[in-house]
C-alpha cells in the first residue's frame, strides 16, 4: 500500500500530461517506487539529486558513494545502475534500427549514452553506408585517463571490411572538459587524409565531456582538414555544398 500511495502523484501526472511532464525528482521517484523509513520516495529522490548534484552525477556514481547516504543500499543502487544501462542499450538499438541518422541531437545523445562516465578515453567510430544509414558502430581503441592511441589504418581497414562510405568519429574526455587538444586535431587530420585515399568521408569528430560536447564539423575543422596543400577541396568533396558534405547525415 505504501508504494502505491507514494507513486500516486507522479504516476497520475504522467498519465494525464505525459512522461516528459515529470520533473527529475518525480521521474526518479517513479523508478525507485518506495522511500526509506521516515522518508517518502519524493523526499528521498529530492535529497539524492541534491547530494549528487544532477541525474548525471547520480547515475554515474559508484556504490561507495551511495553507502554514505542514509537509507540507500545495494537494492536502490542496482535500480539506478539498471536505469543507466537501459538508456545505453536503448540508444544502441535505436541506432541500429532507425536510419539514417535523424538529427544532430540523436547522434550526440547516442554518443553521450555510450561514452559519458567512462573512466578511460575511448575512441568510437560510427560507420555509415552511401546513403548515410548506420551500418554499425565500434569502440576501436581504449586508453588511459587522458590519452588513447589511435591508428588511422585500422579505422580504414574496418570501414573497407563492412563496405562503409562515411564515418563519424567520437571519443570522450574523462576529465569532463570536451575542448579538443592539439593531439585530437592532429589525429583527426591524419584520419581524414587516410580516408580520402580510399574515398571515405569523415563527417564529424565529436568529443564528449561531462554534460558538454564539441563537434569538429560545427567548428569548420572537418572542411579545413579536407583541403589539400593548395587550399582547395578535392574534386569529390566539391560534388555537394559545404552543408551537405558535413551535415547530410543529420
Automatic annotation (TrEMBL):
One of its GO terms (molecular function) is metal ion binding. Transmembrane segments: none annotated. GO terms for biological process: proteolysis. CDD domains: MPN_DUF2466. It holds the Pfam family UPF0758_N. The keyword Zinc applies. It comes from the Bacteria. Keywords: Hydrolase, Metal-binding, Metalloprotease, Protease, Zinc. The keyword Magnesium does not apply. InterPro entries: MPN (IPR037518), RadC_JAB (IPR025657), RuvA_2-like (IPR010994), UPF0758 (IPR001405), UPF0758_CS (IPR020891), UPF0758_N (IPR046778), UPF0758_YicR (IPR022820). Residues 100-222 form the MPN domain. Belongs to the UPF0758 family. YicR subfamily. This is UPF0758 protein YicR. It comes from Escherichia albertii (strain TW07627). The gene is radC.
Amino acid at each position: 500500500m505504501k508504494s502505491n500511495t507514494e507513486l500516486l502523484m507522479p504516476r497520475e501526472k504522467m498519465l494525464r500530461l505525459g512522461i516528459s511532464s515529470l520533473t527529475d525528482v518525480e521521474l526518479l521517484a517513479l523508478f525507485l517506487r518506495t522511500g526509506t523509513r521516515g522518508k517518502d520516495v519524493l523526499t528521498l529522490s529530492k535529497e539524492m539529486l541534491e547530494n549528487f548534484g544532477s541525474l548525471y552525477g547520480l547515475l554515474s556514481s559508484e556504490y561507495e558513494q551511495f553507502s554514505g547516504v542514509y537509507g540507500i543500499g545495494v537494492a536502490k543502487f542496482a535500480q539506478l545502475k539498471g536505469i543507466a544501462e537501459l538508456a545505453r542499450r536503448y540508444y544502441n538499438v535505436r541506432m541500429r534500427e532507425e536510419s539514417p541518422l535523424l538529427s544532430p541531437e540523436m547522434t550526440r545523445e547516442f554518443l553521450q549514452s555510450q561514452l559519458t562516465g567512462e573512466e578511460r578515453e575511448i575512441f568510437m567510430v560510427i560507420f555509415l553506408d552511401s546513403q548515410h544509414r548506420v551500418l554499425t558502430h565500434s569502440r576501436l581503441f581504449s586508453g588511459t585517463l587522458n590519452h588513447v592511441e589511435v591508428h588511422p589504418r585500422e579505422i580504414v581497414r574496418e570501414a573497407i571490411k563492412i563496405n562503409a562510405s562515411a564515418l563519424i568519429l567520437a571519443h570522450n574526455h574523462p576529465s569532463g572538459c570536451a575542448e579538443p587538444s592539439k593531439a585530437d586535431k592532429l589525429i583527426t587530420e591524419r584520419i581524414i587524409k587516410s580516408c580520402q585515399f580510399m574515398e571515405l568521408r569523415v563527417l564529424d569528430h565529436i568529443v564528449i565531456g561531462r554534460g558538454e560536447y564539441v563537434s569538429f564539423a560545427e567548428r569548420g575543422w572537418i572542411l579545413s582538414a579536407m583541403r589539400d596543400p593548395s587550399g582547395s577541396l578535392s574534386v569529390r568533396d566539391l560534388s555537394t555544398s559545404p552543408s551537405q558534405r558535413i551535415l547530410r547525415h543529420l
